[in-house]
Each structure stands twice: as C-alpha cells, then as structure tokens.
Amino acid sequence: MRNGTLRCERGKGRFGFIISVLILAAAVFVAAKLVPVKVKTYQFADYMREEAQRAAWNKNEQTLRARLLDKAETLGLPVTEKNLQIKMGGGEIRVSARYEVPVDLIVTTYVWRLDQEERAPLF
C-alpha cells in the first residue's frame, strides 16, 4: 500500500515542477521583450534632457526637433513631428513626447504608452 502512495506523490511533484518551469520561461520571454524597449525609452529621455539643456543656450527649436527625431529613429522609437512638442516660454523650455510602442508577445501585442517630458531653464 505504501508503494502506491509514493508513486502518486512523485507525479504531483513533477507536475508542479513543469508548471514552475513554464511560468519561469514565460517571465523570461516577457522580460526579454520588454527590457530592450524600456532601455531605449530611458536613452531617449536622457537624450531629451541633454538636448533641452543645450537648446536652452542656443534657443534653436528647429535644430532641437531635428536632433530628437533623428535620435528616436536611431533607437527605433515611433516619435514623429506630430507627437513631439517643444515649447519655449516662461523662462524655460519644455520638450514632451507622447508615443506608443507595440511589443509583440506572440499571443498578444502589448502597447506601451509613453509620456516623456523634460524641462530646462532658458538662459
């Protein structure tokens, strides 16, 4: 009788292990898809901050816009003229970008909505 109980328990352990491995694999897959996008958005936000500070000195909106759009294209981010706003006034420069990055997760496409804004004082 005892041997029958052991066989049953052994199977339960394997099933739990398989489920755990599947969950871990799914988490690694999702992270592998989302982390590169997050890194690119951080890089773009840092670049926006640096360029806003640089533009505060020379006050050239067109150059700033061109540099930001070029960087977004280099990073593969869908930032366009339409969703990039630059405002100078009130003693500061404000740069904002609102865009969506689709991330293919095989079973669904996750749309990551981003709203990035940087400010710098005008000199």
Number of domains: 1
Number of strands: 3
- Indicate the proportion of strand residues: 25-35%
- State the distance separating the first and last CA atoms: 86 Å
* Unreliable residue stretches: none
Class by alpha and beta content: alpha+beta
Strand adjacency order, main sheet? 1-2-3
Give your account of this protein's structure.
The structure is a single chain. The mean pLDDT is about 90. This protein is elongated. Helix content is about 60%, strand content about 25%. The termini are far apart. It is of the alpha+beta class and about 120 residues long. It has one domain. A three-stranded antiparallel sheet has the order 1-2-3, with helices on one face. It is built from two helices and three strands, in the order H-H-E-E-E.
